[in-house]
Amino acid sequence: MPTLAREGVTLSYQDLGSGTPLLLLHAFPLSSEAFWPQLATLSKRCRLIVPDHRGFGASSAGEGPTEMETLAKDALAILDAAGVSSAVVGGVSMGGYAAMALTLLDPGRVRGLVLVDTQATADDEAGKVRREELARTVEAQGPRALVDAMLPKLLAPEVDPKVRARVERIILATSARGAAAALRGMALRQDSRELLARFAGPALVVVGERDTITPVEKSRQMAELLSRSKLVELPGAGHLSNLESPEGFDRALEELLGGL
Ligand code: MLT
To answer: How crowded is residue 19: how many other Cβ atoms within 10 Å of its Cβ?
Structure first.
């Protein structure tokens, strides 16, 4: 995997295929591996660039909370290193928060926006408290605590056991430091509803109809705010709809890419 250094942090990313660049940003607490179906399929139809966020996968952690703006700047540095001036920018859940932060920072580089199982609203006070509690638990107990807290919510109960096992393995490989920093960073994120209302490019909003972390209603709200959006609700899928319903997910992405 190519790497680059930014402010003392090593950022690792996958860069596969050719054609229209598609930057996909992964969810918490996973890694670029969480796009394994798409790394095999979409990379045949476009240039797929998939970073490990700082503190996840093969990327090292930074100091302090990992704010969504920092993830956005990391991703922009990766696009620079890859020689990509503009890309379709998408993300799943926390990756969606980072994709919106990138769009706020540098809208000219976003040819299209893909928001998957995510939300435009910020955490309320109770949500911030829950994040800090989980950050402390993970620091004390390690990534097994993340599996216990998150795995039951990430996937629909009927998911293929092989998918569940692979997601669990990815979470167990997560560093406690990186995860705690990201939890504290997500708690600091801003509301992005005004940004979405201003965004004039094509947008795709995808959600698993059984997502309980960012329920369908959150996606309908984002799709209504975006002036040129398509909303795709994937039957049977939970919060990681690109893994639970990869054919439907890929079809929606291919349609967006084909329409550019
Ligand atoms: C994620 O899947 O990235 C997280 O569940 C998002 C969040 O906790 O807000």
So the answer is: 12
